[in-house]
């Protein structure tokens, strides 16, 4: 049966294939490029608690940075959020019992800006669908930043969800126009115009910009094009982009050592993000020399949090960091960093790096992260601004 094209199957045979693979969530509405990027950032920010929390938050500055919008013009952000609340997400798929399920929901159920924080929510039904990897594929923010056309990003989103299958399946042209946000335009009712102004430019940008290559195919009734599908394959030139933000470290040797020790995927990436590869490597080397340790993962966690096994100023080994203001500030910073979502941590690092003009300072931060000794004073000021009151009751001494 593997040799039979799926689109030629029918009934239960085709239903099994559909149930096994990605089911589409179609987003209608004429979203701008900024709104599409905003939608993806909000989803990634909320993803870990999508079904366990009814509301999600992200600071507005982080949000603007992640969508590449560095303006203080909150009116534009408000307009984009309003557009998401007015946009409809629709799904039509088989549930786990093989029953057909149709549903519709606004893309976000509400959004508000208050005190520099954006709060938003999804309807419970949509949150359940968005959180299921069999139904919805997260869009890589590293890739979406590269898009300059809303049509291209829309095409990428709708094709990437079917990357495991290799084809989107046949879409009626009316549905395709709706997915591209050009429905209702008499100009694009003509396939010649749709192909020249939307399909060809979007395909060219997806193939040049993203980690997939798409090839359009059409079906006709008589001389008129009535359906379109896109064949999908990996783009070998940009395959390295096929990772979620912060996940490039999965390909590194330090990540491999952590996983071999038994550290979970999420915790390994968190430690590498917070502490940097050099610091984690040093702690790994130290822990691996210790004998009679029942849980090396637990000992490594304690070493990272408590800073065991680092050289003291006099060249000796320290059991723990001295209890002083400097160590307490660092401890609080790392606690705040650990509590933030992966999207927020990535934005924090980018924002801090953008403030560093000295090459040595940037290199030191890239190696050591928030434990960078060369940037200690700048880091202290950065987090004092990001989290007012973070250093309350700590003796004011030089960092």
From TrEMBL:
It comes from the Bacteria. Residues 18-159 form the Initiator Rep protein WH1 domain. InterPro entries: Initiator_Rep_WH1, WH-like_DNA-bd_sf, WH_DNA-bd_sf. This is Replication initiation protein. Belongs to the initiator RepB protein family. Gene3D superfamilies: Winged helix-like DNA-binding domain superfamily/Winged helix DNA-binding domain. Pfam families: Rep3_C, Rep3_N.
């Amino acid at each position: 049966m593997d040799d039979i094209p799926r689109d030629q199957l029918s009934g239960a045979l085709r239903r099994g294939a559909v149930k096994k693979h990605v089911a589409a969530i179609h987003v209608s509405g004429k979203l701008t490029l900024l709104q599409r990027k905003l939608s993806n950032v909000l989803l990634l920010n909320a993803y870990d608690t999508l079904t366990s929390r009814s509301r999600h938050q992200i600071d507005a500055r982080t949000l603007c940075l992640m969508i590449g919008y560095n303006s203080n013009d909150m009116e534009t952000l408000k307009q984009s959020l309003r557009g998401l609340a007015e946009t409809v997400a629709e799904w039509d798929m088989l549930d786990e019992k093989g029953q057909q399920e149709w549903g519709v929901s606004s893309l976000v159920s509400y959004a508000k800006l208050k005190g520099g924080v954006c709060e938003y929510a999804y309807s419970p039904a949509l949150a359940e669908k968005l959180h299921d990897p069999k139904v919805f594929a997260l869009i890589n923010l590293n890739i979406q930043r590269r898009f300059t056309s809303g049509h291209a990003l829309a095409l990428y989103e709708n094709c990437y969800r079917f990357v495991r299958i290799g084809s989107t399946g046949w879409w009626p042209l009316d549905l395709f126009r709706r997915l591209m946000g050009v429905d209702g335009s008499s100009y694009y009712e003509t396939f010649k115009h749709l192909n020249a102004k939307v399909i060809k430019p979007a395909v060219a940008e997806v193939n040049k910009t993203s980690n997939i290559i798409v090839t359009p195919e059409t079906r006709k009734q008589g001389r008129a094009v009535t359906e379109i599908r896109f064949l999908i394959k990996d783009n070998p030139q940009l395959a390295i982009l096929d990772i979620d933000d912060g996940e490039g470290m999965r390909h590194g040797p330090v990540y491999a050592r952590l996983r071999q020790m038994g550290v979970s995927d999420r915790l390994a990436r968190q430690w590498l993000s917070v502490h940097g590869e050099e610091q984690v490597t040093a702690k790994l080397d130290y822990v691996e020399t210790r004998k009679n340790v029942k849980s090396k993962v637990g000992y490594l966690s304690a070493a990272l949090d408590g800073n065991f096994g680092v050289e003291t100023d006099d060249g000796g080994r320290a059991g723990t960091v001295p209890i002083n203001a400097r160590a307490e500030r660092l401890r609080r910073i790392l606690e705040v960093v650990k509590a933030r979502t992966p999207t927020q941590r990535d934005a924090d690092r980018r924002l801090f790096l953008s403030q560093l003009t000295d090459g040595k300072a940037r290199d030191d931060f890239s190696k050591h992260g928030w434990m960078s000794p060369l940037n200690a004073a700048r880091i202290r000021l950065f987090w004092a601004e990001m989290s007012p009151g973070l250093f309350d009751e700590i003796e004011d001494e030089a960092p």
